């Protein structure tokens, strides 16, 4: 019998499962690490968003989720222990939980046979793939940019409208839900957000692009990198990317990651030409 429950009282089993977080999927945001970093009153709130997976009355896994939009949830940590061939047992189970009917659940997982089998068995469908790329940072890049180009740090409580409008222009054709000012403020309150790591690029007096560095899952990432549609093809992406790498160098960051859509040949070429290498494929799963 396969069930999803809110409670688990097997402390030793839970400890084992929580320790498997990174080995199951290196993109997991460890629930137990996040839980321990919070005050007791906040820990109670976190427990509302964790569920335990049972098979034949034995807990075999868990998942931690967070609401990101109306009826849309991101699974931040997910583990099923495979030490006793549980993948094969679960694959044969025909009982499905109704828990996932409450909305859309999205989970990002490194691509491997075991995880794909587990997620397929639970009814998830792969909706896309991105490539993970990495660049080591050993030296500071000598920025040789034209005199009309400049960079500026985003100032909190001042530049939110600017960032919101820029990103909505940049990603208008990428099927992203348009950002609101509240989304920007929400981003700034998250644990991954880094101060003095969000950068605008200008050409003369016009803002033409944006990018930022975050700390996610103990690794640094460049995210939201882009140039407004009207200014593409002029080399601004390279200037902005290399400036962000120098920001990393100044902060003592030794390596930086970036995610790129499998089909985005222009972005892949940009990153490869600027020292990034392919590391892994990340599947985007939905249920």
Automatic annotation (TrEMBL):
UniProt cross-references to InterPro entries, sorted A to Z: Acyl_CoA_acyltransferase (IPR016181), GNAT_dom (IPR000182), N-term/lysine_N-AcTrnsfr (IPR051556)
Xref: Pfam families: Acetyltransf_1 (PF00583)
A Gene Ontology biological process term: mitotic sister chromatid cohesion
All residue ranges annotated as the N-acetyltransferase domain in the record: 149-287
CDD domains: NAT_SF
PANTHER family: GCN5-RELATED N-ACETYLTRANSFERASE 10, CHLOROPLASTIC, N-ALPHA-ACETYLTRANSFERASE
One MF annotation (Gene Ontology) recorded for this entry: N-acetyltransferase activity
Protein name, entry field: N-acetyltransferase domain-containing protein
Recorded GO CC terms: NatA complex
